[in-house]
Amino acid sequence: MKVLAIAALALALSGTAARAADPRYPNWPCTQAKVPEISLAAVWAGPALDDAETRWKNDTKITALVARLSARKTPIDEAEKLVKDFLAASSADKTTNAKLLFAGLFETLNAQRSQVMNGLERVSRKQREAADKIREEAIQLQALQSATPRDEAKVEALSNELIWKTRIFEDRNKVVRFVCEVPTAIDQRLFALGRVIQQEME
After folding, report:
1. N or C: which end of the chain has fewer CB within 10 A?
2. Helix axes 182-201, 94-146, angle to 10 degrees
3. Could you report the per-residue pLDDT of 95-144, keeping only the tens digit for each?
């Protein structure tokens, strides 16, 4: 890889890492708008949760079910069936159990979402630092290549290091793009399960 190509790529990477879709969240790396928290009103049109928001943790059946429903490895159709089966067996306590279940899902999935988003912003900060370092080293390499006499060993060593760092940067960017989809998937899971819970209450 020629030095000018490396320098151009480094400058492009640095610019990409520095841009933010929303100036309020300079470290947010995703094209999707950052919504820090899911609002209860956006996903729940059922009765007021009242003390269910704190009581759900005291019910071992609810906490176990919430853990299973919240896991991304649990397919959504399987999760919906688990909700229906649980509430069908609740008989007289159906409304109470439905509220407890949704309160648990709301808290747990919101926490998952925050964890993923905080992780994305940490990686974004590191990527910006990495892009700046690549740019600095590309400029150093250009100076080494222009020097007289030229130290071929240093030129080759720095070229190889730049290629390696650029590859790592690109790989991390691909992972970030993939992880950017996770908060949306969590939103969709909460909305879908909330809808099933409300339907089963009717």
Report:
1. C
2. 170
3. 999 999 999 999 999 999 999 999 999 999 998 898 888 888 888 888 88
Distances (CA, A) of 31 to 27, 34, 178, 181: 12, 9, 12, 10
Cα(200)–Cα(202) distance, rounded to whole angstroms? 6
pLDDT number for residue 148:
86
Tokens representing 137 are 């080293």
Q: What is the DSSP letter of 142?
A: H
Instruction: Report the predicted TM-score, pTM, of the whole model to 2 decimal places.
Output: 0.81
N- to C-terminal Cα separation, the chain:
65
Q: Which two tokens stand for residue 181?
A: 């989809």
Give the three-state DSSP class for 30: coil
Please tell me the number of Cα atoms within 13 Å of 49 on its side-chain side.
23
